[in-house]
Every structure is written in C-alpha cells, then in structure tokens.
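User: structure tokens for this one?
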Amino acid sequence: MRSEPSKPPRRGNSEANHTVVERMLREIAIDGKLTKRDITKFRGIYGSRFMRGLRLALDGRVKRYIFKPSGRELWVVVGESREYLILPHAPYCSCDDYYYAVMDGKAMLCQHLIAYRIASQLGIFDKVEEEDNRYGDLIAELKEIMCIEEH
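Assistant:
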C-alpha cells in the first residue's frame, strides 16, 4: 500500500527530493508499476529530464550486461546519438549532461540515470549475457565512442 506523501518538494531542495525519490522508487519496485501520480511527482522534481528518461526506459533502451562466470555487471543506456555507461552505485553516467549539470549541482540526475533507475525498478531492461573475456572489449568500445564524441 502506497503512503500518501504531501506535495513533492521543489527541485531546489535536493536532500528532501532524494528522500522522496528513494521512497517512490521502492514503492514502484514493490508495485511493479509507475502510476500517473508517480509521473507527476517525478516530473515535478526532475522536469523534462524525467520525461526523456522515462521514454528511454519504456523504449527498451536500457541494457544490463552480465558477464559469465564472474557475474560482473555493466549497465548501458542507448541514447539518441550513442551509448552511455552507467555506474549505478556512484551514481555516474558518461553523458555530457552529467558533467555539465549534475556535477555542477544544477540537476540531481541526467536522463540516462533516470532511465536506468526506472528500468531497473520495473525490470524493463534488456539482459545481455556475455563471456568474461568480452568485458574488456565492451569497455574499449564504450571508451572509443566517448572519445569520438569529444572530438
């Protein structure tokens, strides 16, 4: 049963927003769905980034690579122009918005981290299994993509 929180805090109050977001994500994982009310609250906190992240998640653009036999994981979000590496526990994304907005404190999360959070809570990501010897190759591919975009 979902709790009845008051109005979502404004975007500027990041600590309160973080608490609200974490609670909402736990509830979404338990319920297995995202309601219109959830969307309204998330949009109030993240603005247009939330809607772009939601679209990425719903379009199946979040990938979870699992390497065997180690069980090592790698998360990737396929964006408009390239793939972005996600480090969930950091939280980190290799996109420009992460560097320019999130790192500068102008935004809590980029659209790719939002897509990851939604997809992982709802279980709507592509699961890709690879052999351990492919891990280095995949990292090298992602690094190459990042270097190409910078130039």
